[in-house]
């Protein structure tokens, strides 16, 4: 008698093999803690899980970015806090110097301390940095790219644009002030760093494009629009432009929205004695440096000059307070951003876990 096939044995062997494979997979899931260890376990689930993991890691990095942003803002705000204290002390000295009970020797002693405090403001401005990025020396000031347009508001329906801004060489990162004299039809451009200025005639201004070349300053720009000189003055007078070939302010990538990067941009103004206090250039206001220079001039230790310094310090303190408020507001926003990102990452992690992680009760 010949037995060619043992069906019962073959069935037993097949079931044993299948159970062995299932046991192996269960052991793999139990040991790894993952329901999906390879694409074959759940192809669609793996694809969804990987996309979720990408989002989670992005949210976690955005949290770290926001925290770094807070650290940078705190660094800048701490430096401004010290400048604030110095400005308050300088105002106190200015009030003291304005008292006519002081003689020249007394005022000379007051000026000595004012000069030292001015130097310290400049030092803080130049050296305050975060991760080797200077924060208060003007490198992170709000700037307009040299290839961009500067929109200025004038009469309704007759918008004016300054375009084709051309700045080159060492002047590629500089601050300029434009002012217009509608009585004499003159436009003046002043470079803030050294107070060098140049004046051009604009009596020929019309609806056609007009290019102004300030050769002494190495700057040229084009004005287009149907404006009279008076209208142009209303929109341009004492407008400050800052040019730079590169990035403008500090930007913190704090998340994504609709596939596009979402950032928080913060501009840090230049805070040294040559800029603080000059809030209203059109009115001829002095910076701290200007006010100190008047005191240092021959026969400059006068009551009037000390009173001028008091006014300058009032503007400086107001200016610094405004900047510190802006930095504080940005810090508060970033703190809420971090909280929101943490909640989003937590919820997304829970959803990804339900897809990817193993249920031990079922796997066992």
TrEMBL record:
Residues 3-138 form the Flagellin N-terminal domain. One of its GO terms (cellular component) is bacterial-type flagellum. Keywords: Bacterial flagellum, Secreted. This is Flagellin. It is found in: Secreted; Bacterial flagellum. Flagellin is the subunit protein which polymerizes to form the filaments of bacterial flagella. One of its GO terms (molecular function) is structural molecule activity.
């Amino acid at each position: 008698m010949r037995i060619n096939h043992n069906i019962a044995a073959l069935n037993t062997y097949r079931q044993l093999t299948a159970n062995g494979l299932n046991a192996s997979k269960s052991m793999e899931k139990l040991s790894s803690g993952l329901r999906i260890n390879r694409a074959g376990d759940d192809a669609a689930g793996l694809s969804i899980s990987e996309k979720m993991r990408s989002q989670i890691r992005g949210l976690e990095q955005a949290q770290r970015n926001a925290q770094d942003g807070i650290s940078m803002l705190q660094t800048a705000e701490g430096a401004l806090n010290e400048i604030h204290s110095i400005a308050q002390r300088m105002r106190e000295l200015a009030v003291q110097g304005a008292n006519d009970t002081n003689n020249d020797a007394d005022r000379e002693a007051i000026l000595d301390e004012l000069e030292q405090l001015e130097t310290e403001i400049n030092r803080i401005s130049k050296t305050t940095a975060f991760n080797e990025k200077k924060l208060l020396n003007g490198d992170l000031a709000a700037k307009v790219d040299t290839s961009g347009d500067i929109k200025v508001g004038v009469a309704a329906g007759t918008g004016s644009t300054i375009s084709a801004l051309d700045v080159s060489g060492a002047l590629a990162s500089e601050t300029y002030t434009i002012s217009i004299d509608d009585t004499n039809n003159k436009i003046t451009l002043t470079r803030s760093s050294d107070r060098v200025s140049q004046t051009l005639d604009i009596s020929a201004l019309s609806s056609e494009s007009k290019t102004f070349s300030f050769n002494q300053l190495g700057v040229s720009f084009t004005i287009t629009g149907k404006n009279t000189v008076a209208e142009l003055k209303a929109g341009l007078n004492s407008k400050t432009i800052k040019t730079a070939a590169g990035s403008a302010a500090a930007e913190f990538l704090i998340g994504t929205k609709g596939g596009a990067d979402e950032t928080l941009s913060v501009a840090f103004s230049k805070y040294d004695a040559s800029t603080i206090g000059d809030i209203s250039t059109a009115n001829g206001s002095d910076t701290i440096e200007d006010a100190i220079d008047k005191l240092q001039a021959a026969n400059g230790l006068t009551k009037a000059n000390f009173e001028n310094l008091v006014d300058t310090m009032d503007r400086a303190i107001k200016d610094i307070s405004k900047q510190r408020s802006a930095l504080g507001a940005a810090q508060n926003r970033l703190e809420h951003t971090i909280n929101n990102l943490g909640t989003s990452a937590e919820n997304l992690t829970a959803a990804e876990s339900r897809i990817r992680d193993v249920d031990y009760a079922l796997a066992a």
